[in-house]
Design goal:
The chain has a 9-stranded mixed beta sheet, with helices on one face. A two-stranded antiparallel ribbon has the order 1-2. It has a two-stranded parallel ribbon with strand order 3-4. By secondary structure, it is of the alpha/beta class. The chain contains 13 helices and 15 strands. The two termini are 26 Å apart. The chain is elongated, with a radius of gyration of 22 Å. Strand 11, helix 7 (233-244) and strand 12 form a beta-alpha-beta unit. It binds S-adenosyl-L-homocysteine (SAH) and iron/sulfur cluster. The site of iron/sulfur cluster (SF4) has 11 residues, from loops.
């Protein structure tokens, strides 16, 4: 049975749901909210205006109200119409009777000894997913989920052992950023705060210091939580547009990175329609190893993937593509692998940096992390070839918040069931 989502009539009824390797549009039942109201979070300003018009305002008033409401929702972060002080007192209950301002429900919030925070969130139709905030000295990165579970089955990833439950809606994706701002207390409180934030966010060519100097904790977003964002392309794009909108959350596209396991056919559209930084989960340099650990490689091989990276709109030496490479003991971590990685990056003339990720263990994982000496030797070979190759420090391991550890308790399955699922998924890729 299809899971049911929030009832906004404006959400497409045919939502793209990932198949094993390509998005397959399937009909999705949309159940109206019991109270008949429509959630405004996740909708573009134009759609809010047309809803206001349908509800009885004339076109001009609808446009003006939509502009005001949009500002209150995304810029000031209010959660009640009553707080919208420049909207007439009589209008506020009119709005509240017809619309709601949704946020995912917080089920649990955890804090790691290193300051990393993880939230277990729940959709209105009771599916659990996770979001992580990683504070650093000079930045704060929010790791956002795009799906509940994942259809892909990368062998080293805990999320990959979950079934795909469903795609998150634009509201549930942008709602994560809004919840993080709530939790960090980062909504502008006064008109002058608002002006400052707008100035910092509106300008694409902003210099780095302008943004961080306004003292924000949340400065960067990575689409690296649960799920494969390019298998939920439309919803991820619509959500990120709200995040980047200068009248909205106003984060620069330069501070947003989308990570894909290699959904080649969607990469060009990602660059053109979203325009954010790209990270690619490469993890191996030979067909055999990548087929095993990142099974989507059976559909879109390394050459096709690297060509799509070379063609990625907007990539340049100033905006490099990040290649993520998880360090798995005796699997993909030899000096020869490192040299082949350098050769491939050169062959495709890629403006690249390499992120080496020590493998984060989880119960029943079939791999171990490479030794620190091995990681160092691998990193040196890449670095000496003139390619930046930092080793990522694992964050939030004690609360299972590190890369690849996200998995909601409700989805825990027996080892036998996991193996059966893995085989099913592999068979579908052949
Ligand atoms: N589905 C997307 C984004 C989510 S995963 C993707 O695959 O790119 C974010 C990153 O964490 C990916 O590079 C992923 O390969 C990596 N990762 C997954 N499991 C991991 C683990 N156990 N240890 C270290 N990194 C892991
Ligand atoms: Fe899905 Fe990414 Fe995990 Fe692979 S690494 S299973 S694509 S979340």
């Amino acid at each position: 049975m299809q899971s049911q989502i929030d009832p906004s009539p404006s959400l497409p009824v045919n939502m793209p749901i990932a198949g094993h390797v390509d998005p397959v549009p399937v009909p999705r039942e949309v159940t109206p909210r019991e109270d008949g109201r429509v959630d405004l979070i996740g909708l573009p300003k134009k759609q809010i205006a047309s809803l206001f018009e349908t509800a009885g305002l004339d076109a001009k008033a609808a446009k003006l109200r939509a502009k005001q409401v949009f500002h209150w929702l995304y810029h000031r972060g209010v959660t009640e119409f009553e707080a919208m002080t420049d909207i007439a007192k009589t209008m506020r209950p009119w709005l509240a009777e017809r619309f709601v301002i949704g946020r995912p429900e917080i089920v649990e919030a955890q804090v790691s000894t290193d300051g990393t925070r993880k939230w277990l969130l729940r959709t209105a139709d009771k599916h659990d997913f996770e979001m992580v905030f990683i504070p650093d000295a000079d930045r704060g990165t929010l790791c956002v989920s795009s799906q509940v579970g994942c259809t892909l089955n990368c062998r080293f990833c805990h999320t990959g052992t979950m079934r795909l439950v469903r795609n998150l809606t634009p509201g549930e994706i942008v709602g994560q950023v809004m919840l993080a701002r709530d939790a960090l207390g980062e909504w502008p409180k006064s008109a002058s705060d608002t002006r400052l934030a707008t100035m910092a966010g509106l300008d694409d060519e902003e210099d780095e210091s302008a943004y961080s100097s306004d003292g924000r904790l949340l400065t960067n977003i990575v689409m690296m939580g649960m799920g494969e964002p390019l298998y939920n392309f439309d919803n991820v794009r619509d959500a990120l547009k709200l995040v980047m909108d200068g009248d909205g959350l106003a984060l620069s596209k330069r501070r947003i990175t989308l990570s894909t396991s290699g959904v080649v056919p969607m990469m060009e559209r990602c660059g053109e329609e979203i325009g954010v930084n790209l990270a690619v989960s490469l993890h191996a340099v030979t067909k055999d190893v990548r087929d095993e650990i990142v099974p989507i490689n059976r559909k879109y091989g390394i050459d096709e993937l690297l060509q799509a990276c070379a063609d990625y709109p907007g990539a340049s030496n100033a905006r490099r593509i990040t290649f993520e490479y998880v360090m798995l003991k005796d699997k993909n971590d030899s000096d020869e692998d490192a040299r082949e990685l350098v050769r491939l990056i050169r062959q495709y003339k890629l403006p690249a940096k390499v992120n080496l990720i020590p493998f984060n263990p989880w119960p029943g994982a079939p791999y171990e992390c490479s030794s620190p000496e091995r990681i160092k030797s691998f990193a040196n070979i890449v670095f000496e070839a003139g390619i930046s190759a930092p080793v990522r420090t694992p964050r939030g391991r004690d609360i299972d918040a590190a890369c690849g550890q996200l998995k909601t308790a409700a989805e825990k399955k027996s080892r036998a069931e996991l193996d059966r699922l893995a085989e099913e998924k592999m068979a579908a890729l052949d």
